Amino acid sequence: MHRHAAFRKRADRTRGGRGHQRHPVVPDSPDFGGRGSGDRTSDESPETVNSTEHLGQITNYRKRPLAFLLHYVRRHRTAHLVILGSVLLAVICSVCTQYGLKGLIDVISQGPAAQGVWAAFAVLCGLIAADNMLWRVGGWVAARAFVRVTGDVRSDLFLHLAGHSPTYFSERLPGTLASRITATSNAIFQTENTSTWNVIPPIVAVCVAVVLLTTVNPVMAGAVMAVSLAMAALIFRLARNGTPIHREFATRAAGVDGELVDIISNMSVVRAFGATMREHQRVTGAIGEEMTARRRSLIYLEKLRLLHAVLTAFITAGLLAWGVVMWQHGLATPGDMVLICSLGFTILHGTRDLAVALVDLTQHVARLGEALDSLLVEHDLPDHANASALKAGPGHVTFENVHFAYPSRPAVLNDLTLDIQPGQRVGLVGASGAGKSTVLSLLQRFHDVQGGRVMIDGQDISQVTQASLRDMIAVVPQDISLFHRTVMENLRYARPDATEEEVLKATEIARCRDFIEALPDGFNTMVGNRGVKLSGGQRQRLAIARALLKNAPILLLDEATSALDTESEQAIQAALDTLMEGRTVIAIAHRLSTLQNFDRIVVMKAGQVIDDGTPEGLANRPGPYRDLLRKQAPVAEETRPVLRVA
Ligand SMILES: Nc1ncnc2c1ncn2[C@@H]1O[C@H](COP(=O)(O)OP(=O)(O)OP(=O)(O)O)[C@@H](O)[C@H]1O
Questions:
Q1: In this structure, which residue's CA is closest to atom 24 in ligand 1?
Q2: Where do transmembrane segments lie in this chain (predicted)?
Q3: Could you report the per-residue pLDDT of 106-115, keeping only the tens digit for each?
Q4: CA-CA distance, 399 to 404, in Å (whole number)?
């Protein structure tokens, strides 16, 4: 199969929703319409882009911006051929108009009795009309085709971006990534526009003009062509030399966007620390660097244009003088003089326009290259080449001699072994930095382990598709992220095809229906950026409802109730109890009393399990858990400790 066709097919497949196997409904779990997350077929799992097939294609273009552009041009081949055809014909008509003019003048100069005046007139008018109409045909088709290309590009880049690991995102500013996607699509649009309207027309015009000039004076045509080509080559070469300057500008511009988004998304912190002026200075610094880079880029272009203007003035003067001398020696008719002048100008202006357009084009291609270079990085956590869907089971989780370190950091987990039976509720406790969150991350395969294996129902999670792995796991995180969308859309994120009845049922169990209905627009209320218009407790209950709708056999909880009043805590605790029914649960808890109803407590220290047993068993014998309990005892008397939900 052709490589590009394969790329397209795969991209289409990833968009269209794959039929990967989903786990069955957890038998003992509460019924939310009798459907497991396995029924969620319309959701486009971003993990699907981890397909190594897809990776093998799009990342090939990382260093080949023009090949990348051509790939999308081929997707709309017919439209681009129509555009090219109409531009070529339009330019040919436009240049031939000058020949038509010469014909008319030659006939007219024979006197009023000359034959064929109206025929020459008709030819000239026909050429002018065709010239104008053909441009419009090209413009009409381009208005659709070029815009489609920009849409395809952004959509594919997003798909690729979404397949990167958390490490990729933690090392980059979201604003920079977003701005690079936009920059890529803008650069492609500009490249297509410049090529179609500013590069191809002068090339064709110059070629046709030279052919026509040959009919008057072949030597003159050859000389003009040679000089023009030499000049265009010189300008283009100089333009290419400026590429690093233009790329520097593109990098700085993306940097400013990244800084702005980072600061704006942390505006509450900026205010809390009275750091507005500090941030202003920082942004001003970044803008200053971008301005310097932009100035250098523009001045470089201006120098090139100046050079071309000077050369053009000299060559035009030479050409005109040559024509006058020919006329003086009776070697040229008045019509020939008109033709020499107009074709000479066509060639000179054509090469000038071409050189300028090529300069612009190299700048657009440089921007495109810069953006692709940073976006088309290979996924660092692709699905295994022979990955198959995780076969749904009851949710048996095993960590087998797991060794793990974050990049350039000392080991976080050392030979960790943990066996969690299906349906077991396990609380992970231990000092800050012990590695509890890392355990949850590794189970979701946010990173690959460096030693040992993580297994679900006897299957190594590094060997299964990430989409099927995510389907097995529901997460209630500590920091609950909501989209700036309606409450309903946020709830349905877990299962877009959930019926209204299922959503209502989940919100009732999660104790959030009452407060949602009290919101100004009920379920259609926008929750604000990351959910700021809701309280912490309300966001947590929404997250629980979302997890209920997902209905996965494994549930990860990370410290959910830390900042709540007693009433909210009780509501959330009750909701969590329902959510945990019939699932394998791994919960991170700092406040130990929330784990009293759990089957098992695992105490971690420096990446290892140092104690393991039932809450009562561990509480009743000397050991790290009892020490932790005693440390928390005074706190427990004042405030009822609660589970921290993931
Ligand atoms: N993305 C990351 N990159 C590099 N190091 C990390 C990353 N995440 C965590 N760490 C480091 O790994 C160690 C374990 O962190 P982890 O978050 O797993 O601990 P924890 O027991 O969950 O702590 P806490 O209870 O404070 O949340 C810490 O030293 C932390 O600095």
A1: 432
A2: 81-101, 113-130, 195-213, 219-239, 304-327
A3: 888 888 888 8
A4: 12
